[in-house]
Write a structure and sequence with these properties.
about 35% helix, Rossmann fold, single chain, 6-stranded parallel sheet
């Protein structure tokens, strides 16, 4: 559901599972990846310009999606990762379960999260809901996600989760 306001004062961007090992073995993958990465880069740029944290969640282990390259742990092609970005390792669907994400958010004085990344209907949604359970105002970023089941996965995620637009995030960040 699209939101018209964002609760909380100090935002952090949580970018979930944007590693090559999550690539989809589908003919439309290059186009989906490009569109998703462009949106993610816009969100990451906004947060950096506002001086707020960009936190990349790096999944460690094998995925349920077979990937045969030796570069699986590298970021998606075209993703503009900066040395100032924070990287937190995760091992399951939620970016909060058995990770240092909650402590990283506390250390960066964050009380709200915008979640973007891959797979929208699985790991992004799980992180959104876990954020609420950890007392953060939690939202997903429209045009900042790639779904496993495209296009239905994006539609389902945006219907179930609190979705914010880039324009609303810019306003919240004071840009």
């Amino acid at each position: 559901m699209k939101r018209t306001s964002i609760l909380g004062e100090k935002a952090a961007l949580v970018v979930v599972d944007v590693q090559r090992k999550f690539s989809l073995d589908r003919p439309e993958w290059p186009e989906l990846r490009q569109k998703g990465v462009e949106g993610m880069n816009r969100y990451m740029d906004m947060f950096r310009r506002a001086g707020r944290p960009v936190i990349l969640m790096a999944f460690e282990g094998d995925t349920h999606n077979p990937y045969f390259g030796d570069d699986g742990d590298e970021w998606l092609q075209g993703l503009d990762v900066k040395p100032t970005d924070l990287v937190v390792t995760k091992y399951g669907m939620s970016s909060f379960k058995d990770t240092k994400l909650d402590q990283t958010l506390k250390d960066t004085d964050s009380d709200l999260i915008i979640v973007i990344g891959m797979y929208a209907e699985f790991c992004v949604a799980a992180t959104f809901f876990s954020g609420i359970e950890h007392d953060y105002s939690s939202y997903v970023g429209h045009n900042g996600m790639i779904a496993w089941n495209n296009p239905g996965g994006l539609e389902a995620t945006e219907l179930l989760c609190g979705t914010v637009t880039e324009e609303l995030v810019k306003e919240k960040l004071g840009l």
